[in-house]
Amino acid sequence: MGYHIRDIPQGKLGERSKVIEEITELLDAVEQDNPVMALVEMSDVIGALEQHLIKYHPSITLDDLITMKDRTKEAFESGDRPSKIS
User: Fold this and answer.
1) Across residues 24-34, what is the average pLDDT?
2) Are 54 and 33 in contact (CB under 8 A)?
3) Where do runs of H (alpha helix) occur along 1-86?
4) Extents of the domains making up the chain
5) pLDDT recorded at residue 84
6) Which of 2, 12, 23, 75 could bond to 81 as cystine, CB 3.0-4.6 Å?
7) Using CA atoms in the order 47, 49, 53, 54, what is the torsion angle rounded to 10 degrees?
8) Prediction pTM value
């Protein structure tokens, strides 16, 4: 079975299915209490997202997503966008 303890369907690079595969592998690593594997899987999630952008949104980069993440963080921190988590 390899590194993972659950059966994880293989996704196709560039497709959302690959992002889902990598996130599922991340969850599996967390369930195994293996933080190093979890960090590797986080890296793989980023790679899968990057390939999806290249295929479907070639004018958008990971840097663009990070810019949006930063704006969202600022909105939450300033109170302009209250957290839904209580």
Assistant:
1) 96
2) no
3) 16-31, 35-56, 62-78
4) 16-78
5) 65
6) 75
7) 20
8) 0.85
